[in-house]
Amino acid sequence: MEIHHLRYFLAVARELNFTRAAQELHMAVPPLSQRIKALEAELGQQLFDRSTHHVRLTSAGERLLPWAKQLVADFDALPSRAAPGPATDIARLAIPEVVDAALRRALAAAATDAGIDIHVSQTTSADMPHQLTNGTIDLALSYLDAADQPHLTAATVTTQRMGILTDVDTFPGHSTLTLADLRDHTYIHGPSHWEFPQVRAAIETLQRAGVRDQPDRRFNGITSILVGLRQTRGITLCPIAPDLINVGDPPEFIILPIEDLIVEIKTFLLWRTDNSHSKSVAHRLLQNMTSIENRPGDPA
């Protein structure tokens, strides 16, 4: 069987008339009739009921019809499918050391939808403007808006409220906290570059509320911070995002909102204003990102 046999079959099935089908195919009726008979012989099934008054599909012809349509359509689509597709854009994206898993998933999905191949590296938000400026990266997911960098553009991706990260046994029975609850607890500091202006201001508020502070004792990453929290029953500020930190099963740590202290942290997508490629990729990512605003725990 060859593809043209199926084309002959489809023409007759459309017209239910050999004369009109032959005209459509630009051939004479006898050769068309012979091709259909050859197809029927090969399949071992009669495909048409023929009489001097009508042509009708048999049950075998009805069964073949959708398959023949699909096979011919697939065959005709081969040239376009074999042709090179549109080039996939490649973008180098820097992310902070700690990123909400929901945001990572949203970025990955947006990149897939936009046809962008993201190459991810990790650095601090403070270092991202320099890397964007010297062309080491194309985009940055940053906790700083780079307002002091006029050659960079920033778009807000998320706004999250911050709460208190601590051992699950530190405040048993609590679903929220007040500043009074935090009195006499020790604040656990991470690296200094994690303490953005709004975080530093919140730490000062905690100090005034009676939270003990040890600014000279700092932990260098999330793993060591969790160890410090477990050993001291201390506290630290953290975005309220359930999947931000892998806290074990059953959970060993919890993030609780503070009723009388509202601290918000924004995440920005940064790119060089004068770089047309980075600008295009950033806009496509932002357009394709699934909304992750107003998740439970986030500010409404």
Automatic annotation (TrEMBL):
Q: Name one GO molecular function term.
A: DNA binding
Q: Which SUPFAM superfamilies match?
A: Periplasmic binding protein-like II, Winged helix' DNA-binding domain
Pfam families in UniProt: HTH_1 (PF00126), LysR_substrate (PF03466)
Family indicated by similarity = Belongs to the LysR transcriptional regulatory family.
Name a GO CC annotation attached to this entry. Answer: protein-DNA complex
The signal peptide, as residue positions, is none
Name of the featured protein: HTH lysR-type domain-containing protein
The family database entries (PROSITE patterns) matched by this protein are listed as: HTH_LYSR (PS50931)
Instruction: Please report the stretch or stretches of sequence annotated as the HTH lysR-type domain.
Output: 1-58
Q: Which organism is it from?
A: Nocardia terpenica
**Keywords in alphabetical order:** Activator, DNA-binding, Transcription, Transcription regulation
Q: Which InterPro entries match?
A: LysR_HTH_N, LysR_subst-bd, WH-like_DNA-bd_sf, WH_DNA-bd_sf
Q: Which PANTHER family match?
A: HCA OPERON TRANSCRIPTIONAL ACTIVATOR HCAR (PTHR30346:SF0), TRANSCRIPTIONAL DUAL REGULATOR HCAR-RELATED (PTHR30346)
**Top-level taxonomic group:** Bacteria
